[in-house]
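Why does residue order matter? Because the sequence determines the fold. Keep that principle in mind as you read this record.
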Amino acid sequence: MRRHAPCSRARSNAQAAIPKATVAAPTRWLLQTTVEAWAGDSYVTTKQGGRTCVRDNIATTSPAGRVKLGAALTAWARGHAGASVTVTGKTSLLLVSCAGS
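Structure:
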């Protein structure tokens, strides 16, 4: 079982991953505000046969942040077979992603 990095380090890593010089200003603003909606998370990885799954419980800064981050993660999940996003509370989400055979 693996746990996520502490919030401050993970947030700075996520923000650093946004290529600011190559993203148009409105898109950069949207990415930044979506990242700022994240308040921390805790994940567990599991293996069953050839499948590896991640269950990530995500906390957000507010209900509005949950909506914004949930929308971004749902858009990502639509493009990845075995991925889903579920609202689990006013300021929380569950991201599940499985890969393999």
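The CA atoms of residues 13 and 73 lie 17 Å apart.
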